[in-house]
Structure formats: C-alpha cells, structure tokens
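Narrative summary of target 7.
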Amino acid sequence: MKILFLVYHGFSEHSGISKKIRYQVKGLHENGHEVHLCYYDFSPEGHRCRYVDGEVIKDYGTGAWAGMQQRVEYNSVFDYCMNNGIEFVYARCFQNANPWLIRFFKKLRKAGIRAVTEIPTYPYDDEFRNFEWKMRMGLKVDQLFRHRLYKYMDAMVTFSDAEEIFGQRTIRISNGVDLDSIPLHQLQPADDALHLIGVAEVHAWHGFDRVVAGIGEYKGDRKAVFHIVGGVHPNTMRSVFVPLLEKYHVQEQIFFHGQLFGDELTRVFNQCQFAIGSLGRHRSGITVIKTLKNREYATRGIPFIYSEQDSDFDHEPYVLKAPADETPVDIQRIIDFIESFTMKPEEIRKTVEHLTWKKQMQIVVDAMQTM
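Modeled conformation, tokenized:
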C-alpha cells in the first residue's frame, strides 16, 4: 500500500515525539508498505515549507502571510497524493481542526483515498488548562470544527479504550516500541540510596510533584533520590517544584538534569533502580491510556510505577500501581518492592516484544482493509 504519513509540524533530533513518528514510519516500511513522510518545517534559508521525504512540495516564503498560508494551504498535499498514487493518509492530530483541513480531507474522500487521524492523547481538552492563551484559543477553534473534520475520516486511531471519538469509530492500538533503539538496563548504583528516574517534558499530568512530596514525607533510613530528566517550564519550576523543595528541605535529593540523550541518558538510567511513569493523568480527566513512557521503561527492563489504567502492564510483576489522586508517593513501598525484586531486564523486555511498532501499525492497516 502507498501511504502518506501526514504531520503538521517539524522534527527535532532529540524529541520523543519525533522519534516515535519515525519509528511508526519504520514499522509501516517493515510491513512492506511504501511510506512517504509529509511535514512542515523551515528551510535553511528561513522559508516556511511543506516537505515530503525531505523534498519541498510548497514554499510559503517568509513573513506573516507565509505563516498564515502554512496553516490553511493543503492543495499541495492533495496534489502530491493524486500525482503519486497515494492510497491511504495516516495523519497525526495536532489539535488543528479548521475549515481548510476539512476541505482537504473531504477532497481525499471524494478521490477514493482513505484516511485516519491518530489522537495521541484522548481526551485532551483539560491538558490546555494552564497553557498560554494562544494555545487555548487554538483549542477553541479545534473544538468548533473537529466533529466536522473527523466525519471525513475512515476511523480514529487511539491509545485509549474509547470506541468512538468525536463521532467517529476508532482503531485501538498500543503505543509501540523500537527494540533496536533502546539499550537494556544495566544497574550500576553509585551508592546505597534508592535512585528513581522520571523522563518527560514535565507537565502537570506527569505528577512528578507527588514523588518529591513522597520523598519529603518518607521517614525511613535509606536515602531516596529522584532524577528528573527532561525540560521543566520555568513557571512549573517556580510554582510547583520550588515550594516543595523548600517545604521538605529535599534540595539535595532532587536532580533536574534537563534534556539528556544517548549515552548520557543511559548513564543516569543505570544509576537508578526504579522509574516513574505518569502519576497525574487524572488531573487532565484521563483514566485509560497506553503511554509511550511505560513501554520505553519496559523495553529498557527497569521496573516502574504509574497511576492510570494500562491493560498492557496493569498486572505485570515489575509494575507498581499508584492511586490516581493527590497523595504523595509511598517511598517505603517502592523500597520494599525493590528489595524483593528479582526479575532481570531481559525478562522484562521480553514481555513487550508484541508491542513493536511493526505489529501495532499493521493493526491499523489490517483494520482499514476490513472496513
């Protein structure tokens, strides 16, 4: 099948989202499909451009008008589909429903080209609660048009258990893993402390503040340390983490590493015995989700904790479940768990071999062929 994978933004070499998209494309290739990646980015000359596989299909130029054009111009993408025999468009939701996008997908349907949109997180409205006003206004536009937009899809792809999203049927898959890209965990602790690691571009729904509070409330003899890897917005640092650090006097037990990649990230992982998944999904109204982070932790082979419902891991022996509330994380419970834990990293990894992107993306294609 000839597939266009449509993304409404550009890529960063170190972005988890960018890596995920490239692994999804790789998974489709591994299943024998011809896949072309369409995205928006800036050229070396500073022009706003629409690309397919690194080739410019539309140069919008520079300035405010160019910025407007890239949001409303999809004729270039439609023409590419028609001229290159595209049979299926796999789009990734960017909370950007609008009349021009509706027109684009309506034309695809009329031309006999099938389409789905992946909703990375559902529901997502509450995630915008504390975002800047421009993003909240963008969400308002999305809310106005999304039901009309998704009427022209054949289905929505979701990592939740929802059978219908915005009036459209769903194809339910799990976030996948790329086994080739993630090294196995090799524990090399620097001392006798409990070392925890949480990797994320930190938002309220990650709930890392619950871990900081848990370390503050912990009264046991063993030292507990939390390594936060990823960006933390200055407002979040000032309003969430600094007050907790000062309240509990745990400044020397919480390390903010910023973004780490490759060997540097692996080095921190290998200091840690246990990983932190999402502990605040309830804050954005989410009960069921299959997060990428849980799968990446399992692929490394490190045990972890989270608070949402995830049927791929809820009953695995290397997982602890935290309550979906605002209570501090019970550090003593993690220590007790680790002290009796004997499962090897390669044994944990084996449990996610069925979650490769090759297998998850083929579920979508198979579903489309039977609809």
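Residues 295 and 325 are 23 Å apart (CA to CA).
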